[in-house]
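Task 17 of the worksheet. Students: predict the tertiary structure of the chain below and write it out as structure tokens. Keep your answer in the requested format; marks are given for formatting as well as content.
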Amino acid sequence: AQDFLSHPCGRKFRIATHLAPPMIQLDATKCANQLCPPEAFGEDGGLTYEFIQHKLLPQLIQQCKDAGAANPTVEFDWYLPAAERTSATSAVNMVCNGGFAEKDVQSSHKATNLTCPNANPSAASYYKGPSPAGTCAGIGDPSCVSPGPDMVTGAVHVVAERLLQLQFSMPYYAVSQITVVRPDTSFSIADGILNVFRCFRLDLYVGIAVEMLIIWFMFMVVESTVNDDIIDGWGSYVDTFYWVFSGIFGGADKAPITIGGKIIFCAHAFFAVIIIATYTGSVAAFFTAQAAVPTVTGFESLQKGAFSVAVRGPIWDTTEEPPPYLGILAAGDSPEEENPSIQFKLLQSLMRASSSTKFTMVMTRRMESRAADGVTALEPAAGVDPCTLEGAQLGAYDQVMCGTKVSDSAPDTLIFDTPSVIYELNKRKNATGECGLVTVGTTFSPTGFGVGFPARTTFQVAFDSAILNLTTRGVMDELVERYQIATRHSMCTFADANGGLQMTTSEMLGLFIITGAFIVIALVHGGVERFTFTAKARAALREEEQRALVIDVPKEDEDHGKGGPIAVPGEDVDAKEAEADRLKALAEAEEKAQEE
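Model answer:
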């Protein structure tokens, strides 16, 4: 094992680089002839770049020193694919085909033989190992030992299919897939206000209003002139309408006294009971039906084909027999030669495993969007709407976000690597202040990112030892925290705590607003009425008290002098009678104020 640890020593490894933020991110304009220098990566070259270049490389060098290697130097050069740099399959194919040319990134993805041409010793591209350190300065350099790259990394999944093509190190990062959807923005404040009324149609509300007007008119004719409980004068109209209105809710304001009035009251009460019972059942059914509307709750929601999912991969001729791929092809903007992504292959394997599983797919060339030139990446920014940007070539993220704004066949969802999704959605949230997309459900299909080598490599043991040493020391955990790509770091996650089975305050907002409005109106009117009544009552009370203090003397006599009113009562005035008169005057004043 110690001998294997020294195998990378004194070697230069040319890396086929899968450009996949946040694992690998760089400024491609600083790369020359596909070779990217350290300044192209900057300070945030991505989790994979930092792990491989700044953590794994020093560990390999240390292992060489510990093994006593004559030349402990190990070097890494990073090369981008000639085309489709954001496709992991392109980078993998560079190693399989043993070259850096554009033709080397393509694969015959319909072929059943998945072995790499580079695995054939008689092939011109047959791998002869890495070049000595300090040599092989670029593509075409005659000092290079092998014509193609020595390894591949990025967001490269270690899966069974690729194990038939390459020899992989142990995974350095565990990864899974996650589902992304547009957030449901259909519910608004107006919906919350109107929800409590939507179980009845407008024509039914009109019918209820007509019934109330008829009953009101009949009560005015039959009851208002004989029923002492109804206020006299113009107030009778309001009082009678309140009687009818309260009756529709099952709370009668007063009782009729005529036979005709009692018959009318019974008819109105019967109508009210039926309406109340019907409304109670209808509002429950209405909200239950709303909760039962199919929505995407996770990856399981996609497996019957009810919702379309965007994945990177090729389109195909749906009339071909047998079809080259399974599933329903809803739409797509990718060519038939497009390299299939790991997500596309996952869906195909699930459909092969179960005949009841059927995915509706929208095929796309890339995850990111580009400007009309097809080269410039469209970065999220406040005030920039990719859905309306003329000539924009939308990637999977924006196709889902824009939805029917751009196409009737736009995908409902997408599935992709969890760290990439969280990084992208958080970046959009920070740039625009909004979550135009959200993750939904739990993660699924766990795999791992690893380093791939040509078949029959002798370097796997040394790389495995270095990766194991670093991961057990928590190096990867530190990088994950730095790049904020764990599920706990997601800013845009859909979580329905009620599961759609319970009504929320927002859904019943109308009930609270209407009730609150009545309470406020009552408080305001009550305050005004109270103030007005108190002022009138006090004025009337003062007037009656003055009158109670004035005593008429009917005639002249020796005890009281001249007849007429005097301001101060004499000794013969009974105090009890004066108090009784005062209380009576107060009661009359209050009654008079109420009538006014």
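Marker's comment: Residues 470 and 476 are 7 Å apart (CA to CA). The chain has 16 helices and 13 strands.
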